[in-house]
Amino acid sequence: MKHQLDISEASVYVGTYAKYNNGSLFGKWLKLSDYADKEEFFEACKELHSDEEDPEYMFQDFENIPDGLIGESWLADNIFEVLEAYADMDDDRQEAFAIWCNNTSRNLSDEDINNLISNFDDEYMGSYDSEEDFANWLVEETMELPDFMIMYFDYKAYARDLFICDYWFEDGHVFQNA
Fold it and tell me: Taking the CB of residue 120, how many other CB atoms lie within 10 A of it?
């Protein structure tokens, strides 16, 4: 099981390439929620490394940031929009959104935040105890089986077939494959 992200706790250890190349790991953990936007974040980076004339920032480590929103030398332009959208979600959707961000094949850093949230909403099916629990719900909601057939329906086999290619399941959340 993967470590669960809490995007509201997104933080970055900011050093510089010059310090690193001179054998120093000097830097500091900066919590992204402490900054209103990317510009304010980079102002803090500049202040942290004010001993360099033109520092080239190195994000040596990061926590609680979905894959695709940060790299060693870059921060996605939309990262603060993603953080804001995340903060507006309830707890269950926050957990699901973090899982989805880490597993989607979309380019998170290039996607418009409205499209990103819309795609998440389209693909997120909800939370369920198991794949079989989801299959049971799907049958009840989408199929009109006579009562006598329900007792013969193989939910386990149906769930197996559903999750071969149409859906995926992680930590109690079901997503439809795009």
Answer: 19
3-state helix, strand and coil shares in percent for the chain, rounded to the nearest 5:
45, 20, 35
What is the structure's pLDDT at 104? 86
Check whether residue 110 and residue 50 sit in a common domain. Answer: yes
Dihedral over alpha carbons 116, 120, 121, 123 (to 10 degrees): 140
pTM for this prediction: 0.81
With bands split at pLDDT 50, 70 and 90, how would you rate the model's confidence at 131? very high
DSSP state letters, 98-151: HHHHHH--S-TTTS-HHHHHHHHHHHEEEE-SSHHHHHHHHHHHH----HHHHT
In a domain, 31, yes or no: yes
- 163 vs 177: CA distance, rounded Å: 9
Based on the fold, state whether residues 163 and 80 are members of the same structural domain: no
Tell me the residue type at 106.
Answer: R
Is there a single domain that holds both residue 64 and residue 108?
yes
Angle between helices 113-123 and 79-87 (to 10 degrees): 50
Cα–Cα distance between 80 and 76 in angstroms, integer?
9
What are the Cα distances from residue 132, in Å, to 68, 100, 135, 142, 156?
Answer: 31, 20, 5, 15, 6
Same domain, 134 and 82: no
Q: How far apart are the first and last CA of the chain?
A: 22
